[in-house]
Amino acid sequence: MDAERWQRLSPLLDALLELEPEARTRRLQALREEDPGLAGELEGLLALEDDNDDFLSEPLVMPPAGVGSGAEVGPYRLESLLGEGGMGQVWLASRADGLYQRRVALKLLRPGLTSNDLRLRFTREREILARLAHPNIARLLDAGISADGLPYLALEYVDGTPITDYCREYRVPLAQRLQMFRQICDAVSHAHANLIVHRDLKPSNILVTPAGEVRLLDFGIAKLLDSEAPAPEQTGTGMRAFTLHYAAPEQIRGEPVTTMTDVYSLGVVLYELLTASKPYRLKRHSDAEWEEAILTADPVRPSQAVMRDTATAHDRAAQRRRSRVLAGDLDNIALRALAKRPEQRYPSVEALAQDIGRFEAGRPVMAQPQRLGYRFRKYVARHRWALATGLVVTLVLSTALALIAWQAREAVAEAARAQAMQDFMIGLFENAGRGREGEPLDLDSLLDGAVERGNLQLAREPRARAELLGVIARLRMGLGDQAQARALLEQQAAIIAQTADIPASLRLESLVLRGRLARQEGDAAACVTLLEPALGDARREQAQLPPQTADFYSELGRCRQATGARQGARQMFERALAVRRDMRSDEVGTVQTLIDLADLQVEDGELLAALAGYRQAGDRLQQRVGGQHGLQIDIGRRLAGVQRRLGRQEDAISTLRAVLPLAVQVVGTGHETTLGVREQLVALYLDDQRFTDAQAQLAEIHRERMQRLGPDDPALIQSHGLLGRVAWERNDLSTALVHLHDALRIARTARAGRADQERLVDALLRLATVLHEAGRHPEALPLLQEARQEIDAMPGADASQADRLLGEVEIALGRGDAGR
């Protein structure tokens, strides 16, 4: 039988072995109609299997004295027994021939259990393992038959600890646990791509080395070496092909396994990483009770599973903190992976990993019902720290680029238009300077006046007027005033459409601005619809207008990225990068494109590559422009974000500490960009429970915002709330309540829209949570009732946290369900 024929037979044989006799007969009949020869070969292999149905009914043959420590198997010398099961053993071994120094995990079939069908299975497992090449999978290094005719497999020896034990012993933070889990998913996805289902995923098959590297073991071999007692449904060899506590319902029922079987087992592993417990609460923990639970019982929500009876108030407070983190998205992700029916789970391991990635990035997860309010809150939370940086960079760069473009266009041949523009600008600022002495310049009035005067004084210079509208639209976008920017760009587009001598450069600039505005307003599809038809024009103008075409490619790339077309986005970014490198003058634009490419890698989960990309961007900016550029702040914040996702907390803190003095120097201590850096530091300190450090940064943020905005500005709600929470974590209840009451007071006065309602609910829940944890349940109850009323008034709002807290408080007050 050649290799190609075996590759066709192997997966079919696996599937047939998992079927009940009647189902197997029906499947063979269908195969016989499709390919009689193939069906005949499969029947022959199954006959070999049937001949050995009772080969485990007698006591196992014990290994001869020669198979023990010091014995040689092929070129390997056995050192110590690592483990054994009903059909085989795993030994730590080293090369006996001195060819090279390497320790391996040597897997052996027991002597006396080497019938033809088992040898066939052993060969098949060897071929399966040989196809797996992944950094998180223990590799097959060698295979052969000893002088005594004993088949063996030599695999990479992993000196590690089961992942659950590792996380418990080293107190691994949640962010790092999720990152490790995604590595496991990546390894299993690699196996699935090679048509291999693991079938026995469990912590003892997922080891973590002392260096923190994750390794997945026993692909397929577990079916040969499993030591568990027989289950009601068995494989053709009479051995259970899974570990009961991690088995999916279809495995218990004896139905065929699929890739979604591995999704379920990974769900159990994820559950243990989140809660340090199994998904089901049992009384006797017998096999029969486990099977019944897996088939019929609902898993306990992870956020509830961590709430165990403990002796101290401090432990209960820690449990509540952990429960709040798990409630919502992580609850839903774990429960979807553990769904009873395969079609109700994630469609693939990759989809499960992607949802974990969405949670890490603060994006809406697929396991969560996609209500508008939920998606809106995720969007705001995800972008709150980037808003300040985007404002500054957009404002400064757009103004500079507009002025440069203006100067370049004012050639001698257009002296009349240039003079008209000059007179207009002088008149504009002279008029702005006539305000009352000592009053600050009103930028909003200045921009409105510029548009009004431009419409009058530049009525005969449509090109100059179009350029002016574009500059002011950029400024409006930088200030976050999208409505005004949209009106200005619509005016500009109308002028361009009615004017014959508008240059291609201005047409491209106008398109890019309109596309950017659509993207910033959340309509990336409209941006793509607007820009895609002009792609051919941009290519034709590339040689004559490299700055404008590079900007066009970059913006189209960002819009494609926002619609999920990441490959198309990458093409645009790479084209923009090539144009800018040819220009050799737009270093800032080149760096921005490098950042765009690294952002893509973050979305694709290529965090190490993104890390290298951000560093390349920072190095180039340092060498070509200088270290004091504002983009260095943006790069540092992105770099720290990736380091945090990789679990490199100290690296992220060091990065932000280096960025902070630069932000102070470039934009000032009270600028939102600087405060955004401090907010990232706060998040990292809270991750590590470094409450003193977090409080110091929060106090600085709060002081700067209060000084600039006044004591009652809604922007202070968040800092009051965090200061209150941190004070409570430091057992300073009185300070905590002062800040939390201030947050609530401000939130109650700011009731203009949906975002204000959500801030009010957040303030109510923060204060109620601390009062509840402090045992002051009567004070917490009316706050929670008020929060519930506010949530009811917001269509689609998530009430799970409020309901959970309300239930806990009512139970504490002795009301139970009757109190609702």
Automatic annotation (TrEMBL):
Keyword Zinc: no
Gene Ontology molecular function terms on file: ATP binding; protein serine/threonine kinase activity
Record-annotated membrane-spanning stretches: 385-406
Pfam families: Pkinase, TPR_12
Positions of the Protein kinase domain: 76-366
Domain of life from the UniProt record: Bacteria
UniProt-recorded name of the protein: Protein kinase
Organism: Marilutibacter aestuarii
Native organism taxonomy: Bacteria, Pseudomonadati, Pseudomonadota, Gammaproteobacteria, Lysobacterales
